[in-house]
Amino acid sequence: MLIKRKTDLTEHDVTPFDLYKERRRFIKAGVAATAALGFPWLVQAKLTLGKITPGPFSTDEEKTPYKDVTTYNNFYEFGTSKAEPAINAGSLVPDPWSVAVEGECDKPGTVGIEDILKNHALEERIYRLRCVEGWSMVIPWVGFPLTDFIKRFQPNSKAKFVEFETLNDKKQMPGQRRRVLEWPYVEGLRMDEAMHPLTILAVGLYGNVLPNQNGAPIRLVVPWKYGFKSIKSIVKVRFRETQPLSSWEKAGPKEYGFYSNVNPNVDHPRWSQRRERRIGEFGKRKTLMFNGYEDQVASLYKGMDLKKYF
Ligand code: MTE
To answer: Minimal CA–CA distance to 292: which of 220, 198, 202, 215?
Structure first.
């Protein structure tokens, strides 16, 4: 995001869908061993999702096609262009996977992804995702409220913020060989934002496990904030008394604040945030306050100057 580049989807950005389908066919055939033969992109989690029920807060807007959701990505650990994550993320091994939970809580611990899938009822939440770069999508996520996960570890009274970390492993994430950001990718939320019922941990989309490029096996989705808050491939959750410093804030403090609420009235220093391009549509649409979730979340920021706390 910090790097100046074209943000519009072009043919060169997209993996041809037929090629993508072909990859999926191989994945389904379970050819994990092919990684050793030089086809690392064919490896994907063997995890299966159980029952998925419709969850609250879903929009009835038209969903962005699966092809676009999975080939137009931001995942700098696999390259800085939109097409690179789909091409390069095969080297990520999302199974086995575990998430360590530490810091200001009474029951710290490490949980495996199988355990997480077993212990949380999965819901479909069709949410808008609005990137700070000015494009947006509507994605049918599969996940569960972050608050249910948090409660298992019993945060104590000092826990005012939650910090999240992505995997830090140059072998699995070749983009980390370049210092385009400080690794690992870090994000954070205030405790009440984390425990808001809209905030979910996603483990799938379009009814299936998350493709690696979308943050397998588990990622955050905070629909009223710019997409970069929705950190992917999480391995660590830390309860903190003090406000975490996120990767984007570190890289560009004047451009990317801690709150990062979608706010069309606050311009990014280099461009307006008043309008957005929904992927798949021609022309632009008006960006809504809090990405359209104002009724649900405006009370979290009552009395705060949202220009100062951008
Ligand atoms: N998480 C990690 N670890 N690395 C990233 O580069 N990019 C962020 C966010 N989460 C990013 C990340 C940005 S800028 C956006 S817009 C969303 O992921 C994009 O999610 P998507 O590719 O699933 O649409």
So the answer is: 198
